[in-house]
Amino acid sequence: MALLNTYKKPQTKSVEDYAFVMNKIVSYIMWFMFFATIVYLFGFLPDSPEFVLDDYFKINGFTILIWAVVTFFSAIINSFSVNYLKGFEYHSKFVGLSFGFTLSVMLLVISNHIIPFIFSWFIMGVFMAKLIGVNSSWGEAREASKFTQKYFLASTLFLSVGILFLAFQTDHFTLSKLMLDFDTLPKYMVIISGICIIMAAIIQSAIFPFHRWLLSAMTAPTPASALMHAGFVNGAGILLTLFSALIVASNTFNVLFFIGGLTAIIAQFTKLLQVNVKQKLACSTIAQMGFMVMQCGLGFFNAAVVHLILHGFYKAYLFLSSGEGIELSKPQKKLKVRITIPQAILVIVYGVLGAMFFTALTGEGKAMDSGIFLKLIVAITIGQMTYNIVKQKILSVFQKIVVPPALFFSGIAIYALIYNGVTSLMADMPMVAKALPLSSIQVAFGIIFLAGFFIMKLGIYRQVPWLYVKLLNISQPYKKTILNYK
User: Fold this and answer.
1) pLDDT tens sequence across 410-429
2) 325 class by beta-carbon count within 10 Å (0-12 exposed, 13-18 middle, 19+ buried)
3) Contact residues for 428 (Cβ-Cβ < 8 A; gap 6+)
4) What count of other Cβ atoms lies within 10 Å of the Cβ of residue 437?
5) What are phi and psi for residue 246, nearest 5 degrees?
6) Sign (positive or negative) of CA dihedral 157, 163, 167, 168
7) Which of 304-313, 381-390, 477-486 has the weakest average pLDDT?
8) pLDDT tens digits along 417-469
């Protein structure tokens, strides 16, 4: 959706200069904070000390890690918007809201007392809803802002109920103490609180069936969309990691695993039906959030944090480069999926090799536990990448054999480095990686997940009209956010 169609009138010269200078200042602040956190991280690795400030705030390795990620994305997006939003009527408003959003995320991860923690979760939603509707002169943008704000308020309500329920039962009002005192509570109280926290997380991360708010948020300028998809929707990974001890105590892993896996499958299907670039990216984000929640459901909260970091880089780049992608694109006839026997063998062999290399570097997937699913996801990813290469006609047979392993060995090595680094920074948290015994539910859903993947890749769903229509309908934004105003 082109930005030029989203505002009525250009700014005056003085207002434009003010917005430009304000944007520059915010960008410099974010870059300074990013480099400061990076220096801190490398200065204290592998052991990052924990600082507690009057029980209200806590700084540890995980806090600094998230700060580094958030300030980096904010710095990149603000620097990009200096010229991209030049002349935009609401440029200065965008800068102020994006800066406020960044600070609210930083407040969330540093908060140890439940009051600033709940407040920061609430204000994050307020800032993001305002960013979605930053062009207040556009009717669809106003409707999108109001629509998304309802979801964010619901998320805050569930979070408040879940935390306050525990706090008043245990008489602890700091997260550090709250996460250590579940044994004294009746099981049903722990389960209720666990479900409330899960609801808060999946609503904000647009997990099915709460995905429609993200599909309706495309009225936001492209830099705001990048900030939303690279940062805001990743809130589930942060929240579930902070409350990982509660997930363990309430034994709600299967809930996360099922909801996350179902979302990943459905969103991948709906992505293929979209014709709008930003809608495709929105469906992709929903699918990736499904994978992230699924990893939490497997007990690997460290893998979920790595996923949200890498997804942030990937999705911020895609949004910020979407304009160029549209400009360079041209209509093409969709190619049918065809794979020869030699290609299939190469895909399977490289997928297995990639999974084995991942296990060797990270140690995950050696035993017959939930780590097997991490190994499976790696194998599928490597297989998909290999197929995308071997089907290219411009490559020689030698290139098709050599290029895939060169890419996936280097890629997995980088991933393992990040994975082990994140795990080290999270070492002082209650739960980091808790591999679960394989259950019949996990195995059954794993089979369904694989079947859904192949149905998607082979395009079989297109031959089932009712399924095609159903997928198309559930991937539509709220009606008042599209073509409702003149």
Assistant:
1) 888 888 888 888 888 887 77
2) exposed
3) 48, 50, 60, 61
4) 10
5) -70, -40
6) positive
7) 477-486
8) 888 888 888 877 767 777 778 777 778 877 887 777 777 766 676 777 787 78
DSSP state of 99: H
Please give, one letter per residue, the 3-state secondary structure of 154-202: HHHHHHHHHHHHHHHHHCCCEHHHHCCCCCCCCHHHHHHHHHHHHHHHH
Q: Are 281 and 326 in contact (CB under 8 A)?
A: no
The closest of 222, 242, 241 to 230, measured between CA atoms, is 222
- Where do we find the tokens 């990743």? 234
Query: Which of 422, 258, 237, 361 lies closest to 311 in space, CA to CA?
Result: 237
Compute how many other C-beta atoms are within 10 angstroms of the C-beta atom of residue 172: 16
Distance CA 245, CA 247 (A): 5
- Which position has the token pair 């603000």? 78
For the chain, helix (H) and strand (E) counts, in that order, are 20, 2
What is the DSSP annotation of 306-329? HHHHHHHHHHHHHHHTHHHHHHH-
List helix spans (H) across 9-113. 13-44, 61-84, 91-110
Q: Which of 421, 391, 385 is nearest to 406 (CA)?
A: 385
253: tokens are: 């892993």
55 CA to centre of own chain = 29
